Amino acid sequence: MTPRGVGKRPRYHHAVTNSGRGGRSPASRGRLTPRAPGRGDAWVHWRVPPGPPAIEPAGAPDGAPDGAPSHGRLGLPGTRTRRLRRPAAAEARAFWLASPAMAWLVLFFLLPLLFVGVASFMTRGAGGQPIQPWTVEHYQRTFEVFGPVIWRTLGFAALTTVLCLLVGYPTALYIASRPRPGVRLLLLFLVLLPFWTNFLVRTYALITIVQREGLLNEWLVRLGIVHDPVQVLFTPTAVVLGLVYGFLPFMVLPIYASVERLDRRYVEAAHDLGANDWRAFWRVIWPLTLPGVVAGSMLVFIPAIGAFVTPDLMGGTGGLMIGNLVQSQFRGRGNVPLGSAISMVLLVIVFAGVLVYARWGERRDP
Amino acid sequence: MSRPVRPYAPGGRPARARPVRHGVAPERRRALRRDLATRRLGRVLAWTVPLVALGFLWVPIAVLVAFSFNDAASVSSWRGFSLRWYENLFTSLTGGPARFQTELLLRAVLNSLLVAGVSTVVATTLGTMFALAVARGRFPGRRLFDALFYLPVVIPDITMGVSLAVFFRIVFEAWQQWTGVRLVSGFGTIIIAHVAFNVAYVAIVVRARLATMDPSLEEAARDLGANDWQAFWRITFPILFPGVLAGALLAFTLSLDDFVITFFTAGVGTTTLPLFVYGLLKQRVPPEINAVSTLMILASIALVAVSLVLQRRGARRA
Predict the structure, then answer these.
(1) Which of A164, B16, B51, B180 is most buried (CB neighbours < 10 A)?
(2) Domain-located, residue B189
(3) Would you state the pLDDT for residue A270?
């Protein structure tokens, strides 16, 4: 018994496997699949009607001039030669399948953002509501009055990122270099588990340690490092500490991933060629794990910019960040347009970070 | 003993004859010593820094859990083991005097579970549908939306919360002017908000799973005569299931833990657990909060364990 399609010419060889752009494995791309007519076609694939294949005019999609002879399209077996017209039905079906999620995103995510953008250019009315005459005064006020807070936020986020990197990189390197996979998994789990516990609970846990009558001060006094308890809580130090505590796993994970992907033979080669540990690290390991570092840094920096809970619970007046400014404009009789303007500025900063990430960050497919 | 003369130097010139020294030249020796010091330092740092990092992550949690059993209301001086804070949590349930707002706590837990459950189901369904359509189909705006679905992940919670607050306020006002019915924030608004960010996470997780899936399996099913429905439920979905499960668990956790967005979309009487905890932290912090936190940590560890077991089972089936 011969398998189907082997040894005889398939009756319909127009069902090109999910051709071109969306195709997953190169092996399956462009393969001609024999198929009986009238069978259920791909689920959200192009539905190909039985009958002669629909062929697009040669040369049209690929930029070859119309009418020019194009020998690649001569229908030789084994090469992908025909372009199918997309049947409207399959396209519509995929669209309907995606549409609830897209509608939700547009209605309850993009539209609200648009509202905030519009509100940021309006005047403050009674009760803090935005009203008609357009103005840019809120942006002026944001930069003039709250400039220091913006700079402080950037500074906190940058400091948090650097501290996370300094602590997170060796941690990731250590975990990835454990020879036994069980140990690796356990250590990774220990880094990840705090990430699963509630952020408020974790922040509270840190507060109990650093507060004036907490364990930190108790031990500092007992060990004779300081005479009187130091005030850490409600200072900028506490905010940065809280942010590092909250976002450290975000730094460790991408770096761990890129260290694990690193080919150890490069490091061995560097040593064979006479590099010491220091040199091998800076010339080989560091450059090769840089995408992970960029990814981790952005995963720490971006949420740190928009942090609200940590400065709210751990920072005093000297530790306020943009998030707190935004929130304070929306409580009670606040100032909605001003709050909107501040959150738009926050948004722009975050997008700048995202652009950095998209440009230099981890690539999915190397 | 004659002096050894190096015949050639790297430059090709005859080398200057040098007196033999035992050991190494001083500058070379200094470099070696520096190298050795770097190595020693590196070797020490390589395990101390991870130790510090893990300690930093775990000591506060461990202390919190330990001191929830402290007899005193302090979190620094240990007076003795006691379960009194846990007892205080539950006295009112057994008809004793109410020492803690246990009623509110329980209602907050139930609210959280309701919000997380509903938003997880909705977000998982919509997100999976979207991921399938984007990965397997073509439609106008596909690439645009594919990119747009990363937005809720990167945008700060506070921006999203604030924008939804503004949005609901405006929509509710318009609705009141139009129909005369006054809408208020509540479960509806919280669930809408949670679905809005969860659907993005689910879509990303499921898409990642779809990307590793070989489409030829589906094609094989169809070649063998399966229709769309059969091919989906017999082939695509079982393979996709671990991804869907991972997405759902992520959505559930995010929804349970979310504070900021809920804070801006909640109404009166729809306090979720994070809102309740925040309220406790903002007011006079009661000593029972250590016990509450410990229970929450235990619950999240249990959730992680369950998810690991489920995922392993799902992965084995695939």
Answers:
(1) A164
(2) yes
(3) 92
Residue of B nearest to A46 (CA): B137
SS3 A15: strand
Give residue B96's identity as a one-letter amino acid code: G
B75: DSSP letter: S
CA distances from B30 to A127, B35, B37 (A): 73, 8, 10
B309 in any annotated domain: no
pLDDT tens figures, A108-139: 999 999 999 998 898 887 766 777 788 888 89
Taking the Cβ of residue A334 and every Cβ of chain B, the question of whether any pair is shorter than 8 Å is answered with no
Q: Say which CATH topology domain A137-360 has.
A: MetI-like fold (1.10.3720)
Q: Closest approach of chain B CAs to the CA of A95, in angstroms?
A: 6
Asked if the C-beta of A286 comes within 8 angstroms of chain B's C-beta atoms, the answer is no
CA angle at residue A252 from A163 to A281, to 5 degrees?
80
Output the six-digit token pair for B70: 């402290």
| Interface touch B56/A167, C-beta < 8 Å | yes
pTM above 0.80, yes or no: no
Distance from CA of A23 to the nearest CA of B (A): 8
Task: Name the average pLDDT for chain B.
Answer: 84
Say whether B300 and A198 touch across the interface (CB within 8 A): yes
State pLDDT tens for residues A216-263. 888 888 888 888 888 888 888 899 999 999 999 999 999 999 998 888
**ipTM of this model?**
0.82
Of A42-46, A195-199, B107-111, the range with the highest mean pLDDT is B107-111
CA–CA separation, B308 and B301 (whole Å):
11
A157 vs B: CB within 8 A = no
Q: What is the CATH number of the domain that holds B198?
A: 1.10.3720.10
Count up the domains in chain B and report the number: 1
Low-confidence stretches of chain B (pLDDT < 70) are 1-23, 95-99, 314-318
Does residue B11 sit within a domain? no
Task: State which amino acid sits at residue B260.
Answer: V
Using DSSP, state whether B78 is helix, strand or coil.
coil
Residue B204 lies in a domain: yes
- Token output for A92: 């519509």
How far, in Å, CA of A29 to CA of B296, rounded? Answer: 50
